[in-house]
Amino acid sequence: MLSFEEKQSIIESFPELTKKEISLKRLNYHFEESLYEKTIVIEKMHPNGNGFVYVGDLLKYEELANDKGLVNIRDFDEKSLREIIRDSINYLSEETDIPIEETWVSRDGTILKLIHDQWNWDIYHQNNLEESFGTREAAVNYLHDEGFVLKK
After folding, report:
1. How does 110-129 read in b/e, with b if 16+ C-beta sit within 10 Å?
2. Least CB-packed of 6, 17, 128, 142 within 10 Å?
3. 125 by DSSP, 3-state: which?
4. Cβ–Cβ < 8 Å for 80, 91
5. CA 50, 53, 54, 56: dihedral to nearest 10 degrees?
6. Whole-number pLDDT of residue 99
7. pLDDT score recorded for residue 117
8. Digit-coded pLDDT (tens) for 97-130
């Protein structure tokens, strides 16, 4: 587990974040350029190592996030901490992505669409959402496991 000072050093290596002291020696780090009302990226960072990073509804963190979209970073290593902070900043700074759409076909001719829209990779059959993934890799693995190939 990283110490409070190590976490603080990593967090403060992101120049787009602004530190704000709150009660009980805790710190919040704000992303003032957020396109949304939510500006706090790191919430209630405490000298005991506890702290939370806002990830909203990013599927990538769905199993870790609480109902407020916060992930406890107490046991994160440096790489994981940097990644989740970058993901949070990206989440708060992207209004919308231009959707990326791919066509996948099975041997029997079934067509699925893989669409990256904002933060999720969604698989559609006709207009019906079949599955949703937090990463392209997970979606592609699923498609391959189901016998689909990318149509060129």
Report:
1. eebbbbbeebbbbbbeeeee
2. 128
3. strand
4. no
5. -100
6. 65
7. 75
8. 556 889 999 999 999 999 987 678 899 999 999 9
Q: Which two structure tokens, joined as six digits, stand for 101?
A: 């759409």
Structure-token pair, residue 100: 């990326």
| Cα separation values, 101 from 11, 117, 152, Å | 34, 9, 12
The pTM of this model reads 0.67
Half-sphere exposure of 60 (CA within 13 A, CB side): 18
Strand order across the 27-31 sheet: 17-21, 27-31, 40-45, 52-54, 70-72
124: left (phi over 0), alpha (psi -120 to 50) or beta: beta
- Indicate the length of the chain as a whole number: 152
CA distance 130 to 18: 40
